[in-house]
Amino acid sequence: MKKKALFIGGTGTISTAIVKRLSASGEWDVYVLNRGNRSNVLPVGVNQIVADINDEKAVLDKIGDMTFDCVCEFIGFVPSQVERDYRLFNGKTKQYIYISSASAYHKPAASYVITEGTTLANPYWQYSRDKIACEEFLMKKYREEGFPVTIVRPSHTYDERNIQWEVAIYYMNQNYWLGNGIGFCSSLLEADEAGLVGAEGMWLPIMMDRGMFGVISVLMGYVITAIYLYRRKLFTIMWVLLSFLVLKTLTTVVGVEPTYYLLIIVFLIRYNEIMKINKCEKIVTNI
Q1: Residue 262: CA atoms inside 13 Å, Cβ hemisphere, count?
Q2: What is the pLDDT of residues 179-195, one digit of tens each?
Q3: Domain boundary residue among 152, 179, 207?
Q4: Does this model's pTM top 0.70?
């Protein structure tokens, strides 16, 4: 029989990767409780409970008499939020895991070695003091009532999108100059580990698919075209080109190939020339 884990949040920087890993293990029934704003990042098979965690009545209506082997709180930042969790899940979970922060450790540090005995105090950051207050409430409930709490204090946190450049460089280095072939990035996105890429811009797929030659050729195409437009004083079209470049760097812009934008620019240049010719012909005719 599978164990049941509930993630409060479940689609954030830390929790998304954990949800994916736990779901892929096949040993857990994974539930997430959130407002449903980022359902697209959840893997198939994850059970989503859509509710505002701050609306306790709505949450209780949704979870009913469900119990969990583990409840993981990733978005508890102030004491009132963990107090709410205690009311909601006391008696409904065998383990409550609270994600605190390594910033809660004593500042300035008395030693570079951090142990279980390191005191908690941070006069420089309210966020840390709130985390400490959350921990104190939970530990009080553990000592007085046996509330099953585990506290985790992460230090450096990141997700796949934070390291997508490193991922792209890793795959590009497998065939640095020529790349891995058109469609290689797409094949990664379709795989289970698709979230590792986060390649919503144009450069990461180019790096992985076409290698350094691809990066240089696309970039030179834009640079040469921009210089041509500047010298011809076609500033409006030049800004259109640069806008395409920026947008395609930041997003897929409906998935159109980046080289297609150069064709659009060529069309605009030709159209501008035709309009100038027609204008000249009208002037000559009037004369």
Answers
A1: 14
A2: 888 877 766 655 444 44
A3: 152
A4: no
Residue 125, token pair as written in the block: 């950051």
CATH classification at residue 73: 3.40.50.720
> Looking at residue 196, what is its pLDDT?
44
pLDDT tens per residue, range 118-146: 899 999 999 999 999 999 999 999 999 99
Q: Copy the structure tokens of residue 28.
A: 């857990």
Q: Are 171 and 180 in contact (CB under 8 A)?
A: yes
Q: Phi/psi of residue 127, each to 5°?
A: -55, -45
Residue 54: partners with Cβ closer than 8 Å, 6 or more residues away: 81, 84
Give the integer Cα–Cα distance in Å for 64 and 48: 14
SS3 261: helix
Q: Which residue, among 244, 239, 249, 236, has the nearest Cα to 263 in the 3D structure?
A: 244
Dig out the tokens for 200 from the structure: 């919503």
Specify whether 33 is located in the same domain as 172.
no
